[in-house]
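Reviewers of the previous submission asked for a worked example of the structure-prediction workflow described in the proposal, so we include one complete record here. The input consisted solely of the amino acid sequence. No template or homolog information was supplied to the procedure at any stage.
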Amino acid sequence: MRAATEHAASVCPVEVTVSIVGGSWKLTIVQKLLAGTRRFGELRRDVGGVTDRVLTRQLRELESDGLVHREVFAQVPPRVEYSLTAEGESLRPLVEMMDEWGRQWTSEHVGGVPA
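From that input alone, the workflow returned the following structure tokens.
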């Protein structure tokens, strides 16, 4: 567990949730991994707009908090795959509800629903 998450646990459960999934691109990463295992390059393309450095940092934090599993295959060139753990998968209802809320808000306020 990261120190930030441990500190959040002393505040309240909402802060724990924000500490774990409230970072640049974290919920988008989780959403993409809900569809299945992805390699780094696939995630970078799927997430869009994220730099390699930020994506790496966010994946490491998600891994440290037990939501993402990183598997390295011993081959040349090296292959790394990311997937959700059972804990990460438990975020599915939250992510789906947030996705639906965002679509509805966008439809009402912006006039279109993103894909």
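The first strand starts at residue 38 and ends at 39. We consider this example representative of the routine output the project will generate in years two and three.
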